[in-house]
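User: Quick sanity check before I run a bigger batch. Here is a single chain. Can you write out its predicted 3D structure?
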Amino acid sequence: VAVQSLCNMRLAVFAKPEHESRISHVNTASVKTGNKGGVGVSFFFNRTSFGFVNCHLTSGSEKVLRRNQNFVDILRLLSMGDKQLSAFDISLRFTHLFWCGDLNYRLDLDVQDILKHVSKREFEELMFADQLTRERQKRKAFFNFKEEKITFPPTYRYERGSRDCYLWQKYKTSGVSLCQ
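Assistant: Done. Predicted structure follows.
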């Protein structure tokens, strides 16, 4: 259907060839938010409007407010969809809007507590410390979106090549550790 890129972010939307004649009004857009941002693709499939957004929000445990602002900037400034609805943010322009990417929200818990809950597969307990969950509840970001129940452990900072061993410290190539 379309591809949109911004720096190292890319969004590609595909459809089966037999649906090509049902797709119209394809739009692409991007928004830069500092050194991060978002990309989007929208289109009509028959009479149903679809929007897709991929983003990379500010990283760092302490930068929740900047992530929230990145979200708001992308929501308001990403120019795609029905131009007659330009007064509305993109969450109100589509029948279905899908948002994905590196949101960078973290767990506000001590690493050892996180590891304890992960080992017991207590993912619901981790959700109480999840920054994204809290910001959604406060209606600061992603409040009109639905998220599936989380049934897998956090994926942040696995040891390279591993899917079950976490590294919670960053290491420079010099071997000097940087605690986050």
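The first strand starts at residue 2 and ends at 6.

User: Great, the batch can go ahead then.
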